[in-house]
Amino acid sequence: MKKTSQRLHFRNLAFTLAVLVAVTWGLLFPTHFTSWGSFNVSSLIIPLLMLIMFGMGTTMSISDFAGVFKMPKAILAGLLCQFTIMPFVGLLLVLVVGLPDEIAAGVILVGSSPSGLASNVMSYISKSNVALSITLTAFATILAPFLTPILMKFLASSYVPIDVLAMFWSITKIVILPIIAGLLFNYFFYERFKILEKIMPVISMAGIALIIAIITASGRDSLLTIGFLLIGIVVLHNLIGYSLGYWIIRVLGIDKKSARTIAFEVGMQNSGLASGIAVEMGKLATMGLAPALFSIIQNITGSILAGYWRKDVKEM
């Protein structure tokens, strides 16, 4: 157990380092990630995301969805926090600061996205409620094709045109269909392809790092102009998500371990999905910036918070 936790922690630190390298590379040498001859590199983003979501599906099983019957109050509270706190905090932040329209829409977009696998890792490292984390991520992902477009239409349509049906299909194509394929693969072929359990996390980390490098290179000019302001907004968005996610759950009388889990689920978003939606909308260089920064920042803050809470568990 201890070795597994240390391995996950090391993997997460390696991923954070890889993302930082990707951002630096994309800023300093943007042409490396914009085109390779006549090939547009941004066209790799959607296939990479689908591969990552397939990998996520191979780590899941139908039993993950049965958790709602074991922890109904925590699941319901977690999902409500997931799809209310981050979208509305994102809107409030961009209203206060006054970002350019498409960049503002990107902040709201990442806030309206579900949680991802990173939150499961942080829950494991911090010795929180891992079963709750996996169940929440599964349900939030399944609900995303319905709730994310509606939230974007309600909160972000004053910044960019939102086609609810087109966004529904984009999320279904990028997330739901690959996850279903991964679930089926896991059910029928797991015993024959156990090696996927080891290689898919590495492929996923490399894929996300490449996606972030592509987004950074595409939006380099905007990032250099508004970068520090946007970083500040993303950091606030992330930290407010942790704080409200934790304390609202505690006020509801749910145990501390579950509250910590939900804090990670709320504060950490599937920024890859948000990036994919930005690609589908043809606004990668603007709407894609906040998701790219969010991916970096949430892994740094999540690692720090997971380490602190893990230490707190040892001292209890």
Rounded to an integer in angstroms, the radius of gyration calculated over CA atoms is 18 Å
Mean pLDDT: 85
**How would you spell out the order of helices and strands?**
HEEHHHHHHHHHHHHHH
Q: What share of residues is helical?
A: over 70%
Query: How many separate structural domains?
Result: 1
CATH class: Mainly Alpha
DSSP strand (E) fraction? under 5%
Largest sheet: 2 strands, antiparallel
Number of helices: 15
Termini, distance in Å? 19 Å
CATH architecture: Up-down Bundle
Q: Enumerate the strands of the largest sheet in spatial order, edge to edge or round the barrel.
A: 1-2
Shape type: globular
Label the structural class: mainly alpha
Structure characterization notes:
This protein has 15 helices and two strands. It has one domain (41-315): Na+/H+ antiporter like fold (Up-down Bundle). The protein has a two-stranded antiparallel sheet with strand order 1-2. It has helices at 2-28, 45-58, 67-70, 72-82, 85-97, 101-111, 117-125, 130-156, 164-189, 196-218, 220-251, 256-267, 271-280, 284-287, 289-315, and strands at residues 35-36, 39-40. A hairpin with a 2-residue loop joins strand 1 (35-36) and strand 2 (39-40). The radius of gyration is 18 Å and the shape is globular. It has 316 residues and is mostly helical.
